[in-house]
Design a protein that fits this description.
The structure holds two protein chains of two kinds. Chain A is an alpha/beta fold. Chain A has nine helices and ten strands. Chain A has a domain of about 140 residues: P-loop containing nucleotide triphosphate hydrolases (Rossmann fold, 3-Layer(aba) Sandwich), CATH 3.40.50.300. In chain A, the strands form two sheets. Chain A has a six-stranded mixed beta sheet, with helices on both faces. Chain A has a four-stranded antiparallel beta sheet with strand order 2-1-4-5, covered by helices on one side. Classes of the chains: A alpha/beta, B mainly alpha. At the A-B interface, helix 2, strand 6 and helix 3 of A face helix 1 and helix 4 of B.
Chain lengths: ~260, ~260
């Protein structure tokens, strides 16, 4: 059962677009039930990795398995056991929130789509907005609906490609809370982000993708050890703009 | 593989339901595909019709086939538009990362074009009847007319699908609609080709839309159809197959 310990396993992954290499031999493994954050600047190839792992794109060479299924030879098994929340909230704006979830439930061939929708809307605080078109939703609500759609079915691995890009601080914290709950319920979360704080807040393991390779991979504590030891400095602690913003709008800052 | 076969029809039906909702919730679409052709019919019959010599005493009878084809032509711009937004918003990525039959999303759009055209064309024929349209055609001839219109819809829909799937901008996706709108105007839809200057006439008589117009007109007026129906059908079969291949190729590239 040792291979089941890892929800995702990637070896020697290579991918070029035309003649431009994006991935030049990527290796990593993600433990089942953990949160794995892939960090990298824009264009580093984070989305390419997500697309390969979610069967949307074929690698040039190397192997990748998700939930024990090879992404190239068993794409249907992979699709059965994962969910993708892409970079842009992929909700149908013309449909209502409820209709969006029901549609996904039908496409996943679930037996009680209406009940599933009601449950997820409730869980994500969208019950009041359930019968409004998604076009009228705020960015945060749209992202919550997007994630709710990903939770239809029995996906054991959820891919979140930059889930908080473009969200305001409040909405970002909501999404963080959701992600922590997911991992708490045993789902493996694969997260890409440009925000270091996000990885710091959420991830059990952090990998940094740079120039087509994973240059570091470890827990936050392990990553910190790579750097010179902390020095003690006395500085006046100014509130950050984020803290000011959140205090003014009277919200809890703790996530 | 077997799951794909089992679910193709269910998945396509879900997709069909989804884009039919898009149509019913878009006033713009309803106006363009139903109200505009009716307005055109009113304009041609009651404003211009008095001055047009077609050799028939009832101009509505002469005009209706062309109006039906124009209504179909008007509708396909929306097919490109809907496909383009699905690609752009990441909706196709979401579907393709799920255990959904691969081509169901595309077929959903194509069937939507067929179903919505059946509805709008029925309304247009009813209005034509009120305006004095009369036909000696029997059930078989009407079925043949329906078949020809369905073929015409399929041809244009698959062409529009290529544009929608491969366009880089929304303007590019919709641009395909303009030449398609124009073709019925340079045909025997409104006036007999014999009144046109020789160059235009040569084009009008040999372009596919004229074959469609003449075949439908002959069927509706109880005349022998002659070769036109075969010309119309071979044009559509040929172009549909080509367009289908290119559209599928564009779809796979995007998927």
């Amino acid at each position: 059962m040792s291979q089941n310990e890892f929800a995702i396993s990637v070896q020697g992954l290579k991918k070029s677009y035309k003649n431009v290499p994006v991935l030049e031999g990527v290796d990593f493994q993600v433990k089942a039930g953990s949160i794995f954050a892939l960090l990298g600047s824009n264009g580093a190839g984070k989305t390419t990795i997500v697309k390969i792992l979610t069967t949307l794109l074929k690698q040039d060479s190397g192997h990748a398995t998700v939930n024990g299924f090879d992404v190239v030879s068993k794409p249907n098994n992979v699709r059965q056991s994962i969910s993708l929340t892409g970079q842009f909230a992929a909700v149908d704006e013309i449909l209502t929130g409820r209709e969006n979830i029901i549609m996904i439930a039908r496409l996943r061939h679930m037996s009680h789509p209406h009940q599933i929708a009601a449950g997820l809307l409730e869980r994500f605080g969208l019950t009041d907005a359930a019968d409004r078109r998604a076009a009228t939703y705020s960015g945060g609500m749209r992202r919550r609906l997007d994630i709710a759609m990903s939770l239809v079915g029995n996906s054991r691995v959820i891919f979140l490609d930059e889930p908080t890009t473009g969200l305001d601080p409040e909405a970002r914290m909501e999404v963080w809370k959701i992600i922590k709950e997911l991992a708490g319920s045993g789902i493996t979360v694969f997260l890409t982000t440009q925000y270091l704080e996000e990885a710091e807040q959420l991830a059990d393991k952090i990998a940094i993708l740079h120039n087509g390779r994973i240059i570091v991979n470890g827990t936050l504590a392990e990553l910190k050890q790579l750097f010179p030891p902390a020095k003690v400095e006395y500085i006046e602690k100014q509130p950050t703009l984020e803290e000011i913003f959140l205090t003014i709008i009277n919200k809890k800052t703790n996530v | 593989m077997e799951t794909i076969k089992n679910h193709f029809f269910i998945d396509t039906r879900v997709m069909l339901g989804r884009s039919m909702r898009h149509i019913f919730r878009s006033m713009d679409t309803i106006i363009t595909v139903t109200i505009m052709p009716i307005a055109m019919m009113l304009l041609f019959v009651y404003v211009l019709g008095g001055a047009i010599q077609t050799g028939t005493h009832n101009y509505v009878n002469y005009l209706l086939p062309g109006i039906l084809l124009i209504a179909v032509a008007n509708s396909v711009g929306y097919v490109s538009f809907r496909l383009f937004t699905d690609v752009q918003r990441g909706i196709f990525e979401r579907f393709n990362s799920m255990p959904v039959a691969r081509s169901a999303a595309l077929w959903g759009h194509v069937l939507t074009a067929l179903v919505s055209n059946v509805m709008s064309l029925t309304v247009i024929v009813l209005v034509a009847l009120i305006m004095g349209f009369r036909s000696p055609a029997g059930v078989l001839s009407w079925l043949a007319v329906a078949g020809i219109l369905a073929m015409f819809t399929l041809v244009l829909t698959w062409i529009a699908a290529i544009a929608g799937l491969s366009a880089k901008t929304i303007d590019g996706a919709s641009a395909i609609a303009y030449p398609i709108h124009f073709l019925p105007l340079i045909s025997s839809a409104f006036v007999p080709t014999s009144s046109m200057p020789s160059g235009v006439r040569a084009f009008a008589e040999n372009q596919p839309v004229t074959a469609f117009v003449e075949a439908i007109r002959a069927l509706l007026s109880g005349q022998p159809v002659g070769n036109n129906i075969w010309i119309a059908l071979s044009w559509s079969a040929g172009i549909t197959v080509l367009a289908y291949i290119f559209a599928m190729r564009a779809y796979k590239k995007r998927g």
